[in-house]
Design a protein that fits this description.
77% helix; mainly alpha
Length: 115
């Protein structure tokens, strides 16, 4: 977002700097707390599996709503998510999945009458 867009949206420089500071603190805490809280190896199978899947759940929780609100067309968004879902099911890498989903959503949005 350039400076003019930020100003026209009513976002002050102090708000942006505060947001960056909060994100930095949260990122630091997320990386530091497990080292402090779990000094010994975790023996609980349930907790280990929960912690193993937690990054994927957080990524999905941040990505899926952003995908629906970023695109201007619901059919294009659904097509992109469908492609991403199928490619993820076949364990493709993150970059090919993101590239294919974005390409399909972009091409779908070019179809007249689907907006």
């Amino acid at each position: 977002m350039n400076q003019n867009a930020a100003l026209s949206a009513g976002i002050s420089t102090a708000s942006v700097l505060l947001g960056i500071a909060v994100m930095a603190v949260v990122t630091y805490l997320m990386r530091m707390l497990p080292l402090v809280l779990f000094r010994r190896r975790i023996r609980s199978v349930w907790l280990r599996s929960f912690l193993a899947y937690l990054p994927y759940a957080v990524l999905a929780a941040m990505t899926v709503p952003a995908a629906f609100f970023a695109g201007g067309s619901l059919p294009a968004t659904l097509a992109g998510l469908a492609v991403a879902g199928v490619m993820s099911w076949f364990r493709m890498g993150l970059f090919p999945v993101a590239a294919a989903a974005s390409t399909v959503a972009c091409l779908f949005s070019l179809i007249p009458g689907l907006s």
